[in-house]
């Protein structure tokens, strides 16, 4: 993987760059649709490419390890072959999912023992095992295995958690560096800055990670319950330290406004289930604000879903029709909302990139943040 | 609407024809995907056109009357405008749905009183009202309101039911003929032959309907619990009497084999929820038989879903991937299976048409019936 930093905004820390992987290039800032179980819910691979314009998607180690299972993915020749997505893939390490199974997992120095949410079977994730699994999944970008500390953890808990995460990170790198990719294309490992909402922990974590010389670096453990302003503050603290010549990935964030604020603070990569999950619940994001499609006011609005038309669904279908589909719980409603929202998110980061390049990012961003907060 | 009978098979009663409506032409024999609530479940309108190659789809009067409601469809300018499907639409009259609400409906000479399955609200469908509703929905082909008699009804029940259906049919025609289409294109009314499994009732019903001079005629009340051979026998009885120069529509049927048998007996039009509903349950129809995608045997079969490739999903995705999606209950699994099965059904009737035209329909059909019965 290679990262070329192409433009630095002069009035903020926003940047535009180009990531090159063996499965193609990614223009940053970028939003990555989440394909937890090897599929972005409700969206065909062809639609992801042609209608959503996704340049990279996510997979999830925890879910893919359980189903279809690593033996199947290895036989397939990796996830790209299995799900027919031939552009870049990033896999989350499963740390977040394992730690979400609060009653069903135990944490040791060695790793995390957990029970499957599907059949209760026992499993163990160690840093080494998670590296091996991600080698087998075959993502272009793989993530370190860490403890994702709750947003409201006290300092002592957060410090101990970070220390464990740092010891695990060393083991991740050791395993990663002593193993080869399985399918003939290269993979890279991103470490994850933890440290909860404590400035000194975040700084220490970022400094530790900065000297690892990784191909890219992630910021984790944010948007997990802490105040939004705290999140922005932590991003600033961390991005002062993380190398400027490597991409920075803010994990699991967020609303369109969160994304613009983070871009302004020097983040390059994003993923979030919000566009698909909220879409399935009837929330539609547009440049002029959000629409709750369940609202009766749309029942006879026969205008296009979004006149901006970032994807064909926006003008093919009307708001009244989408309202009907969502209200009667039809699959097509979920499909339309997912395509629309993903295409909107990707339009938004592409637009941010354009304005970074043209030099008016901060002005554009202020206007957008105001608009995006509207409820239509 | 106009029907041109283009070819008669010399060795059977199979026919090939051309239906012309104001929304385009339909080559028969044809299979019509079911869009109960104004959407074919899990399939975009673009996919229906380009990937499934649907020439006409169904809507359901009962469901559309309840949601979104006729006032919305009228404001939209009809169902075509509402759901963006600009090819022909046929609406089922809702008779079948109302009579399925066994505990929640009462039958009178005037019509059927029923309670909504959604909110328990009271409604009344009379032949006149159902004609008016279908005028408002704006389907190209609308269906008579009838009582759909259970497949195991005794003779006395079936006879009385048929008599009511015949009186209602007169009222349907009266109302239909005294009203105009609402949206500037023409609509036509198909009467429905009932009579359960009783030859003399079916014959009487067909004779009554034959002299109505309708643009097309339907056979209803089959595949509702009676033996399959009985169904074929009833089709033969009825098709001896129904006009040869008008299309014949067998309602709600059926498996691929049922369809070929009915084509051989002179049926031109079909609809069925089987390709979409069974698809959502993991059943895939192919030329070589059916596949149960839940079966573990597919978990590492990385070959295309169907090498015949009647639609792009067949070769883009593998059996192993579809198995995974269906097993983990992912939306994309339902979407792929629905597109595949619909494209297969439409390929099948198109192929039947080709063989009717080329004169080897019966030979081809015998081979297909054997293959289609396989379980792969």
UniProtKB/TrEMBL annotation, chains A, B:
Reaction(s) catalysed (UniProt annotation): 7-aminomethyl-7-carbaguanine + guanosine(34) in tRNA = 7-aminomethyl-7-carbaguanosine(34) in tRNA + guanine
Domain tRNA-guanine(15) transglycosylase-like, first and last residues per copy: 13-372
GO molecular function: tRNA-guanosine(34) queuine transglycosylase activity
Keyword set, alphabetical order: Glycosyltransferase, Queuosine biosynthesis, Transferase, tRNA processing
EC number assigned by the record: 2.4.2.29
GO cellular component: cytosol
SUPFAM superfamilies given in the database record: tRNA-guanine transglycosylase
Residues annotated as the enzyme's active site: 92 (proton acceptor), 271 (nucleophile)
Gene Ontology biological process: tRNA queuosine(34) biosynthetic process
Record Gene3D superfamilies: Queuine tRNA-ribosyltransferase-like
Enzyme class: transferase
Self-association and partners: Homodimer. Within each dimer, one monomer is responsible for RNA recognition and catalysis, while the other monomer binds to the replacement base PreQ1.
Annotated function: Catalyzes the base-exchange of a guanine (G) residue with the queuine precursor 7-aminomethyl-7-deazaguanine (PreQ1) at position 34 (anticodon wobble position) in tRNAs with GU(N) anticodons (tRNA-Asp, -Asn, -His and -Tyr). Catalysis occurs through a double-displacement mechanism. The nucleophile active site attacks the C1' of nucleotide 34 to detach the guanine base from the RNA, forming a covalent enzyme-RNA intermediate. The proton acceptor active site deprotonates the incoming PreQ1, allowing a nucleophilic attack on the C1' of the ribose to form the product.
Family per similarity comment: Belongs to the queuine tRNA-ribosyltransferase family.
Protein name as annotated: Queuine tRNA-ribosyltransferase
Source organism of this protein record: Parabacteroides chinchillae
């Amino acid at each position: 993987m290679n990262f070329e930093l192409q433009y630095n905004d002069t009035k903020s820390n926003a940047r535009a760059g180009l990531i090159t992987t063996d499965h193609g290039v990614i223009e940053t800032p970028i939003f990555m649709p989440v394909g937890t179980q090897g599929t972005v819910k409700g969206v065909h691979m062809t639609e992801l490419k042609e209608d959503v314009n996704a340049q990279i998607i996510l997979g999830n180690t925890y879910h893919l390890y359980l189903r279809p299972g690593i033996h199947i993915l290895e036989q397939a020749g990796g996830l790209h072959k299995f799900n027919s997505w031939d552009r870049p893939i990033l896999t989350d390490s499963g740390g977040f999912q394992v730690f979400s199974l609060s009653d069903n997992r135990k944490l040791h120095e060695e790793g995390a023992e957990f029970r499957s949410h599907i059949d209760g079977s026992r499993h163990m994730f160690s840093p080494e095992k998670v590296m091996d699994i991600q080698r087998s999944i075959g993502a272009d970008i793989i993530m370190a295995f860490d403890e994702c500390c709750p947003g409201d953890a006290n300092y002592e808990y957060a410090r101990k958690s970070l220390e464990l995460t740092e010891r695990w990170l060393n083991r991740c790198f050791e395993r990663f560096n002593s193993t080869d990719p399985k399918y003939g294309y290269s993979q890279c490992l991103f470490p994850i800055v933890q440290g909860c909402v404590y400035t000194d922990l975040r700084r220490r974590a970022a400094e530790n990670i900065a000297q690892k010389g990784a191909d890219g670096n992630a910021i984790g453990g944010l948007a997990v319950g802490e105040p939004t302003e705290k999140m922005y503050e932590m991003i600033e603290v961390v991005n002062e330290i993380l190398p400027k010549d490597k991409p920075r990935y803010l994990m699991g964030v967020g609303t369109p406004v969160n994304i613009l604020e983070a871009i302004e603070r020097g983040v390059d990569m994003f993923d979030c289930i919000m566009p698909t999950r909220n879409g399935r619940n009837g929330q539609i994001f547009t440049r002029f604000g959000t629409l709750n499609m369940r609202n009766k006011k749309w029942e006879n609005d026969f205008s296009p879903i979004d006149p901006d038309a970032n994807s064909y669904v926006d003008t093919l279908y009307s708001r009244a029709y989408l309202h009907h589909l969502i209200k009667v719980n039809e699959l097509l409603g979920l499909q339309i909302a997912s395509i629309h929202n993903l295409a909107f998110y990707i339009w938004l980061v592409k637009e941010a990139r354009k304005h970074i390049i043209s030099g008016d990012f901060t002005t554009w961003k202020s206007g957008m943040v105001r608009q995006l907060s509207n409820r239509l």
